[in-house]
Write a structure and sequence with these properties.
- This protein has 152 residues and is mainly beta.
- The protein has 1 helix and 11 strands; from the N terminus they run αβββββββββββ.
- 3% of the residues lie in helices and 50% in strands.
- A hairpin with a 2-residue loop joins β6 and β7.
- The protein is elongated, with a radius of gyration of 18 Å.
- It starts with 10 loop residues before the first helix and ends with a strand.
């Protein structure tokens, strides 16, 4: 199966680095809980057109923190349930009231498949006992996870 771009070139003659497809999930609501267990925060699916292509994953968080300065949590990126990247550690360690940081991450993955992939951002409390907060934006901003298939 050949893939053709808007300019008429095919993937085989265009070379690597072209963006073949983009998928995004925007998360608008706040997630607040104890995060005592791994808590799913947002996810996006993509089906690569070739097993040799890469997937660029971008995570943008509107706000993350905890309700107490002694409560901290970590944010992770998973591919199909397997850990692949740490987005942020010790979220919420410097402020209370819910909003202390805006973690962002970029990761270039090589999934080696043409099956649908789910990329997921999850969080887990690692210290303290107060609630943890994701997307603490007071309705003024959104968090997102965006994936782009990049031609090999």
């Amino acid at each position: 199966m050949a893939i053709y771009f808007a300019d008429g070139t095919s993937q085989s003659t265009a070379g690597g680095g072209k963006i073949l497809q983009v998928k995004q999930t925007v998360h608008s609501s706040q997630i607040e809980s104890g995060y005592a267990n791994l808590t799913d925060l947002m996810s996006v699916n993509i089906t690569p057109s070739s097993s040799s292509n890469k997937i660029l994953v971008m995570v943008n968080c509107a706000g993350a923190g905890s309700r107490s300065t002694d409560t901290v949590w970590r944010m992770y990126l998973y591919r199909d349930g397997s850990y692949i990247y740490g987005v942020d550690t010790y979220v919420g360690d410097s402020a209370s009231g819910g909003n202390s940081s805006n973690p962002n991450a970029m990761y270039l993955d090589s999934p080696s498949t043409t099956s649908q992939i789910t990329y997921k951002v999850s969080g887990e409390r690692v210290g303290g006992s107060s609630n943890c907060v994701f997307n603490h934006s007071d309705g003024n901003a959104d968090s997102s996870i965006t994936v782009m298939e990049v031609a090999a």
